[in-house]
Amino acid sequence: MPARNARPVKPGDYVYLIDGSGFIFRAYHALPPLNRRSDGLPLNAVLGFCNMLNKLLREIDAGERPSHIAVVFDKARQSFRSEIYKDYKANRTDPPSDLVHQFGLIRQGANAFAVPCVEQEGFEADDLIATYARLAREAGAKVRIVSSDKDLMQLVGEGVTLYDTMKNRTIGPDEVRERFGVPPNKVVDVQALAGDSTDNIPGVPGIGVKTAAELINEYGDLETLLARASEIKQPKRRERLTEFALQARLSLDLVTLKQDVPVAVPVEQLGVRDAEPEKELLGVRVEILADEGPAFTYDLSFQVVTKSDITDIVRTTSGLKVIVPAKDATQLEGATLDYEIDGLVLRNPNKPKPIQLGTLTIDDELAHQVRYVVDAEVNPALAAHGGYVTFVGHDGEGRAYLTMGGGCHGCSMSRMTMLQGVQTMIADAVPGIDKVIDATDHSTGENPYYTA
Predict the structure, then answer these.
(1) CA angle (109 as vertex; 303, 46 as ends), nearest 5
(2) For the purposes of burial, counting CB atoms within 10 Å of the CB of 438, is it exposed (0-12), middle (13-18) or buried (19 or more)?
(3) Quick one: which of 449, 419, 451 has its CA closest to 436?
(4) Residue 60, class by beta-carbon neighbours within 10 Å (0-12 exposed, 13-18 middle, 19+ buried)?
(5) In the predicted model, what is the mean pLDDT of residues 442-452?
(6) How far is CA 206 from CA 50, 215, 228, 384, in A?
(7) Which uninterrupted H or E stretch holds 390?
(8) Which residues contact 372 (CB under 8 A, 6 or more apart)?
(9) Could you give the C-alpha distances from 63 to 14, 56, 67, 318, 408, in angstroms and in order?
(10) Whole-angstrom Cα distance, residue 366 to residue 333?
């Protein structure tokens, strides 16, 4: 990770740690199969992941904006816990093959949002999250763990909360007690007794979460309970606590998250990046980039900027911006506005100056020809794709101005593709028109750019 991202964590900072695995599996199961047309590559998890990450970053309250942020992934299924207990997570099946193929693109997606990805051999994502949370708290920062995973609830405490994006719910000490019947610092004791079939943690047979909570509330912690097991009045419960004491202690080791991982990426290098003011900000929303260019376009409203054009991708307090050298601005000259969608702005320094509607020629023979082509050829061709065009006028210099609708959400054709197709059809059919400009403000769906 580039050293220029380094920023010491200090009191008043807000560190966001995103459970990457949780995002991935939620995204995969939330959307139906979606494949890239060119090669059939599955992309439903990629789309869902980017949707969730974008929504999270877009809806963060101003007073809780992160100073540091990372998506934390599992490097591999094997960890130090597998050495402690060979059957740890042994009951889990491999992830679906169509999901595995998306892992690399998902990481590229996170990087395109200017959110670093962190993973480390030998440790699970939860251990990295626990360690980063401790480091942040020791530096005086607040921590928000973006996850609803019950295994992370042991970390909740002063300055540390969980956030469930699906339910828009913050999980603090009260919510943890509601779930486990004990405060966060006793969660591991309850889990050690109750076990966990998902991770194949044995626990003590016959003891569930409710009983475990009652015992821990009475005796304080697991070790005290085991030491005083002879005092338990119920015979079967007493016998099981005695018989499976070693198994309970093993389970405690398995469920307790490590907070002292020697992290390869220091927490200081998770700092949110700021834009470099000397560079021109020209575009946004290029979510996933392959080596040869865009592998997937999350929002098709904008002309795609290829990887070779991009100087940097940064996240600022106002949103995600893709930085492109000023000399490449001509690729965006077809966009006539500074578009803003979901709080992210596409800036086009080459946009024409506002033209008053009254200055456009709308009643001459050329206008009638354009109207005829739009009504008779363009709109019927776009109808199947959910798009339509309304002629606004032309400026007498070979440019026709249109208002375009559809072609973005729930449509099989992007607006840029629509614009290119419309330009070809009109330019071929109407001599004197060689440039077609979409005058629509697609953030509002209106055409305020040209006014009478």
Answers:
(1) 95
(2) buried
(3) 419
(4) middle
(5) 45
(6) 42, 13, 18, 61
(7) strand 388-394
(8) none
(9) 9, 14, 11, 13, 32
(10) 24
* Residue 286 pLDDT greater than 60, yes or no: no
Please, which residues bridge with residue 265 across strands? Answer: none
Give 337-384 pLDDT, tens digit per residue. 343 333 334 444 444 455 666 678 877 889 889 999 998 888 888 887
User: Is residue 228 within 8 Å of residue 219, measured between CB atoms?
Assistant: yes
* Closest residue by Cα to residue 1 from 58, 71, 66: 71
Which domains, ranges and CATH numbers included, belong to the chain? 3-255 (3.40.50.1010), 274-346 (no CATH), 357-438 (3.30.300.130)
CA 360, 363, 368, 369 torsion-angle sign: negative
355 within 8 A of 396, measured Cβ to Cβ? no
Contact 391, 367 (CB under 8 A): yes
Q: Average of pLDDT values for 99-114?
A: 84
Please write the tens of the pLDDT for every residue from 147-206.
989 999 999 999 999 999 888 899 999 999 999 999 999 999 999 999 999 899 999 999
Dihedral of the alpha carbons of 317, 105, 7, 64, in degrees to the nearest 10: 40
CA distance 341 to 66: 22
Residue type, 49: F
The token duo for 99 is 């999901």
DSSP state of 167: T
C-alpha span between 126 and 98 (Å, rounded): 25
pLDDT score for 84: 92
Burial class (CB in 10 A: 0-12, 13-18, 19+), 221: middle
Query: Cα–Cα distance between 437 and 452 in angstroms, integer?
Result: 18
How far is Cα 99 from Cα 108, in angstroms, rounded to an integer? 15
Nearest-angstrom CA–CA distance, 221 and 199: 22
Written as six digits, the tokens of 49 are 């992941």
pTM of the model: 0.64
Opening angle at CA 1, ends 280 and 50, nearest 5: 70
Once rounded to an integer, what is the mean pLDDT over residues 14-36? 89
* H-helix segments, 172-244: 173-180, 187-194, 209-219, 222-227, 235-243
**In degrees rounded to 5, what are phi and psi of residue 378?**
-70, -55
CB 17 within 8 A of CB 130: no
